[in-house]
Give the backbone structure.
Amino acid sequence: MIKIEKDLENTPNSLLDSKTITRRNTCIRDKKYHQNKKFHQRYKQSDIKEKLKNIYNDKCAFCEQKIRECKDDNLEECSSTVEHYRPKSKYYWLAYSWDNLLWCCHRCNQNKDNNFDIENTLGTLEKTTFLKKIHNSSKIYNRIEKPLMVHPEFDNVVNKLAFNNGIITSDDLRVKYTIETCGLDRDDLNEKRQTIIEDFIENIIDKKLKNESIQDALHELMSDLKKKEKEFIALRYWILKNYKSLMEVS
């Protein structure tokens, strides 16, 4: 998980048009989100997907894996989806809010589902100035609720993560909740992260055998950190921070 910068003033046009406003008003009137294609389509418009895809560098908001755009509603056949940070089933009035929409892989989306624990009082439509800040209300809700789920657009947790043998862990309550809820410690992710760690260690060993400076390996790692499209940036930060202990292992 890495912090993502989203311009909340640059809202996709589809979220501002009359059809979306009508759907939102219907949800508010009925006090529920309507689980049907007509309502789903309003947050799955191409301009919304394209902006989210670019903002997240075509990677999942939670696991940081590369994902691809879903071409239809058959989620089993694709790996990307527009994720609601606050579940639309509980927060029906936030179904079309720009700061509540994330770019997410199908697995993390499935695991997260409607899970959204909070420490404080549940935020409601009446307790905020939501209608005045329709696409930028997350900060208000975060203060009211203190959610346990990490929001990648507001929370910087990169220094709260550890990767032992590729397994993502944390001592932080919120990060731990997010890891467990989204299943970020699943086997396939652990294996991919461990491969990156092993490749770094092998690179260090190779430099030593050739009597070359290990600084070259560190510069390569730092170069990867600057490439926003790279998978598992948080892991690469951790490797750089802990390279001395990894060198001892090598």
User: Anything to note?
Assistant: The chain has a mean pLDDT of 91.
